[in-house]
Predict the structure.
Amino acid sequence: MTAGTEAPAIGLTHRASEDTGHGHRGPESKSIVVPYGFWLFVLSDMVLFSALFASYATLVGATDGGPTTSQLFDRNLVAIETIALLVSSFVCGLALITAKRANMAWTQFWLLLTGLLGLVFLSIEIYEFGTMIAEGAGPQRSAFLSAFFTLVGCHGLHVTAGLLWLGTMMAQILAKGFRQHIIRRLLCFSIFWHALDIIWVAIFTIVYLIGTLP
Amino acid sequence: MSDSRGGNGSTVRPGRAGLIRVLTGGALLALTAGCNRGILDPVGPIAAQEKQLLINSTAIMLAIIIPTMIATVAFAWWFRRGNSKATYRPDWEYSGAVEIVVWSIPALTIMLLGGITWIASHNLEPSKPLKSSVPPLKVEVVSLDWKWLFIYPDQGVATVNQLVVPAGTPISFRLTSATVWNSFFVPQMGTMIYTMPRMTTRLNLQADRQGVYDGLSTHFSGDGFPGMQFKVQALPADQLAMWAQDSRGTGTALDAQGYAELSKPTSYVKPMTYGTVAPGLFDAIVNDRVQQLQRLPAVAPPNQNSAVSTGG
Amino acid sequence: MFGKLTWDAIPFNQPIPLITSLVILAAILGIALWVWRKGWWPYLWNEYITSTDHKRIGVMYIVLALLMLVRGFADAIMMRAQQSLAIGASQGFLPPEHYNQIFSAHGTIMIFFVAMPFVIGFMNFVVPLQLGVRDVAFPTMNNVSFWLSASGALLINLSLFIGEFARTGWLGFPPLSEKAFSPGVGVDYYLVALQVSGVGTVLTAVNFVTTILKTRAPGMSYMRMPIFCWTALASNLIMLAAFPVLTVVLAQLMLDRFLGFHFFTNDGGGNSMLYMNLIWVWGHPEVYILVLPAFGIYSEVAATFSGKPLFGYRSMVFATMAICIISYCVWLHHFFTMGAGANLNAVFGIASMIIGIPTGVKIYNWLFTLYGGRVRFTVPVYYLIGFMLTFVVGGLTGVLLAIPPIDFVVHNSLFLVAHFHHVIIGGVVFALMAGYTYWFPKAFGFTLHEGLGKAVFWCWFIGFHLAFMPLYVLGFWGATRRMQHISDPTWAPWLNIAFVGAVIIGLGIVLTVVQLLYSIKTRDQRRDVTGDPWDGRTLEWLTLSPPPHYNFAVLPDVHGEEAYWLRKQTAIKQDQLIEEPDYQPIEMPVNTPTGVIVAFFASLCGFAIIWYIWWLAILGLIGAFAAFVWYAWRDEHEHIIPVEEVRANARERRRVRMEHLHSLSQST
């Protein structure tokens, strides 16, 4: 591989075939293939969340005489959570920029901030879940609450997994530097993190906003 | 076999057309003859319409697929490598005319069947009451583990694993389940419907012919499932009233306690009759409020003409 | 310490599972010892278990499928035997609690651990070769996917001798599958095994969609892709979009069972109809995951053995993608009898029929592929013709079921059972057997014995019809499915015919094994010297058999549809091979034990969850995560195949091809 060329997909070490004019030049390089595959995975995750949303919509009224949406949700807490997650995404983007410039200190700083804000989000969510359970509005109370805890909790689990991934990436970058495959993974992480934001916006709207309409 | 003029079609010799007719007729015959039982021996209007629908749809489709199957064998055989009489067309991979035909045949068939589907689905919708000059008999059905309970709210009696109906009278069913899903089915009367806990499904059937018919559950419900069979007895209409009259006051009472006893898991239960039924039992089962039903008094069964109270 | 696990979990008092388990254990130990004595473990570890080569992974998938076929078939023959024996006063030899596990295991194993791995195995082996590339987009992930499927299969089989299996059918409908009505571990085995293998399936989908859309040989535009690759694309797109729904609904049932949630329970506001909807939103597309690649196999076989291109290629592509999309619009036809109302029932019924249109078009396109051809009656063509005669009848019964009022009288009956076996065996199994025969020489360098292959076909064809035609009759008579005991003795003759049919199918499976062993023993008589034993039309036939690890010395330039055929005809006309290219060293991904290690921890974690051994479950999760991090930490992802080796292999191939070319020109 000569310097400056993209890492190719499997085995394509010699010069790529000339474009025959029929629209295809051979296998794409890894820097295209890897994020593309990861996007597909994110899409499948969106389908997963769609099923959870569908279940939530079906069961939102099945309160079994127990607490309803308007009795449970605190818009202020949710606002703080949302801001934390959105800013977290923003600084994650900054981390990608500094990573492309191979700046170790700033990259680690922005990644750390990403993680901390993610932790803020999680802490608030765990607090919310804890108080609900303590009040007797846990997931075992009714079908609505089962659906709520599962939808929002699944998102929280994804955030947790993302934080584990983030920690691993930070360690890897520290140990190995800004190699191509590590940059690719960072890119995939940021796709994941932004996707979680998108899901959160949907949750925020469908569960919390609509649920607390007067 | 087709003659050696290639192209998009081949002339069908009279023998082949006759063969097709025989095969179609034979298939239909096999379907209907000698096996006149179950859903092919309908005793009421719903089942009769469904059987007709089955035969018509099968015939329509057989008319398409039998020639296709014959063509498959014919083409494969004629164009076998050893046959020097067949024209080899190594580059023939597209023909607009053929494409139009092969898309049209399934499309037209499906359009026809689609129209039939729309109409039939509406005509034979289970919750649709049957047209009749006679008022319907109301029956409430509960599937338990692993037997069938039939409550006659207007008659004030109930039976287990035995459904007694007047011939020629529409039956209006409300169905539920006490535990897990089941499916109420009397093949000769037609349409089956699921029974689901905390929910009520509706069904309308009629038996025009007097007799005894088999009934079963068609949704697997656990270890006692094979024993969930029942008999349907279609009596002359006046005999039903007599039967109800004779049964009232006899046997055990189906109140909260009687129901608790019945709810114990048993299978292959022999048919039995309850002479008194707590009013509103069915709705109480649907809403899981059986415990709150009043205990039945020792005497005074409900009047046959009283409206069904919701009790509880 | 060990959760719910006690010595009672082992079925000491149930002879059939006990003896079966002991026999299987003995067989596994025996084979492991034999392999060890022969010194084959290093070879197996390096060449297969840790392989990232799509060809090896494909073979492993198919081996898994064939092994599980034996288990799934054993379940089937026990069911047939029981239904022949347990009539009237007799209760047969299987009490309900046992019979109910058997039919649940039969369906679960056949769909998830026979059909899926078999189809995925073919896609693994064939797609990169047909696309003219060296491997899939993510070879390590491919290895992990396989081992996760194997892990699921392991868990299902463990249920035979530790604990019990689900008694709820292959889809586990609640409330029956809830804790209240299924308190044992059976449903948990089912749920955990499917969740573990489901992760593998989603990863496979990501892999193949990326491979097909982003990595193809130079010049291979979409409309030059082999039709099998199009069907693989459609199948994997469905996998990508459907399996997450399965993950969700099974997880919801797990939450109900393990943590007392109320998704589908009778109390707390649970809604069991939600399960029906979600599971079938997955379930219907699932069968198209299986049947679309099967159609792709038929397309390849029809074209190759007719000696002409597939008729109506573009039409076939369009029909494939149409089926892919419409498959998401029909799921309600699985519960017409739930009482959704006439409008919903009719709309979904019509949608279900609409999917029959592209399917019908495909049948006609295969028909017209045969037309004008020079058809060679090889074993794959037997399966093709057998399929075309069988599947259309299965499709007919399917359209009948799609008409709600007809479904109202045959839903869940033996008519339904006959229908879906009709289309699965006639459609999918026949294709798998055809593909097995067709691509076997490419994988192993010699063809299978033809005569035995034809015998296997007849066993399947005759056996299938005997086993399932009587069930249509019984369905009309009002017989329902999943009956441990039959009360009507007049059904006996039909059930006995069905049993005979099952035995004949069993004979076919035995003969398949015989064919394999005999073919291995006499392989020198049927060597595939040229790499192109069938006069093929697609790029996999360009390589020698088996292909080198890296498939092609140089990625082939594709100049038209049927890239290989064009190239071959040009070579024959010009009596010379394509100009020798400039060889380069080739980078290929290294082997990795990540897959088998992750699967080990997944199995551990899964088993622990089933038996409520929480400390072990956490350990398993940590182990899997650690293995993943360890894998991610490696610095060497690829090894280089030196140019001398590439050149030597390529020149050998050219030499063989020149000889073949000369013999062809002499004969024309």
